[in-house]
């Protein structure tokens, strides 16, 4: 199988597996225990936190300074941020292209009577940042939180989060950034960004599934989602998964150390992929092609077929890709991202996402292009005969 679904999840780096195995094999470890093994576990968490602090360029050892909460992943961090950051009666602004783990919790709060406002995007899938000050003003001092992702998981298009951070700072409003797709693909300094909260998830950068984090800026308060433990200063109680935490820190270290090489490599593979496919099929549409995009992401519409048939055909042909967000690909509703970009139904209903990783090779890409091209020709001919 040629794996081109790296925005859904990535293969774990063997160096990360070694670290995790080492921790698991070193005996029981509950960081809250008051014996030697417990202290070793806590030390491992402290060392992992120090390493994360360096990689994300944020101090994590100063009382009252920024904090990093370990969570079960991006979905939990996003839910925690949306429910726990803003004051209970304040309004929340989110963009229309956020991940379902932001949109669904915002819709849940809306159903409970909360004021939610939506930030639109342009035809390239970039949020209309110039509308943000007006939208905040329209909440009449009641805006408590803005949530904008750093890069979209479907199109890969970067969002103007630095501008959003500036606007939110000037307006005195908290900003949460879902940076799940950016880590390991583009550099990110949390000190420079100066947002209020940032989500990350380890399995998107060759770390383990089931571990992620929510970074909180200095003085940012959070109401917890979970109750019943004193871990992580009660902000996210529950026994810490020490092995996964160490695995995430190692994955982040590798992603940071090798970022420049991997970014270059993924970009050239993505360009090879798009150019070869376009050379054979001039009708293909590349979403966000003229926008600044993640180096690994290619979101394509195959206008003479539908995405479900194409996805199945590619699965049989040995190419793994997805029809939008993995979290919704089981039921596969049309992409809310492409709908927000105002694209015609024909393009929305024929879009597939491909994502390369540092493990992808040029041979694999050439082979994938051949298989994709063959599947598309086959489905297009079949459709022509049916018509
Ligand atoms: N946000 C974004 C932008 C994502 O791409 C994903 C994963 N599809 C998530 C959040 C959820 O992360 P996790 O799978 O770790 O829950």
Automatic annotation (TrEMBL):
<dbReference type="GO" id="GO:0051536">
    <property type="term" value="F:iron-sulfur cluster binding"/>
</dbReference>
<keyword id="KW-0663">Pyridoxal phosphate</keyword>
<dbReference type="Pfam" id="PF00266">
    <property type="entry name" value="Aminotran_5"/>
</dbReference>
<keyword id="KW-0408">Iron</keyword>
<dbReference type="InterPro" id="IPR016454">
    <property type="entry name" value="Cysteine_dSase"/>
</dbReference>
<keyword id="KW-0411">Iron-sulfur</keyword>
<protein>
    <submittedName>
        <fullName>Cysteine desulfurase</fullName>
        <ecNumber>2.8.1.7</ecNumber>
    </submittedName>
</protein>
<keyword id="KW-0479">Metal-binding</keyword>
<dbReference type="InterPro" id="IPR000192">
    <property type="entry name" value="Aminotrans_V_dom"/>
</dbReference>
<dbReference type="InterPro" id="IPR015421">
    <property type="entry name" value="PyrdxlP-dep_Trfase_major"/>
</dbReference>
<dbReference type="InterPro" id="IPR018247">
    <property type="entry name" value="EF_Hand_1_Ca_BS"/>
</dbReference>
<keyword id="KW-0808">Transferase</keyword>
<feature type="domain" description="Aminotransferase class V">
    <location>
        <begin position="2"/>
        <end position="365"/>
    </location>
</feature>
<comment type="similarity">
    <text>Belongs to the class-V pyridoxal-phosphate-dependent aminotransferase family. NifS/IscS subfamily.</text>
</comment>
<dbReference type="InterPro" id="IPR015424">
    <property type="entry name" value="PyrdxlP-dep_Trfase"/>
</dbReference>
<dbReference type="InterPro" id="IPR015422">
    <property type="entry name" value="PyrdxlP-dep_Trfase_small"/>
</dbReference>
<dbReference type="GO" id="GO:0046872">
    <property type="term" value="F:metal ion binding"/>
</dbReference>
<dbReference type="GO" id="GO:0031071">
    <property type="term" value="F:cysteine desulfurase activity"/>
</dbReference>
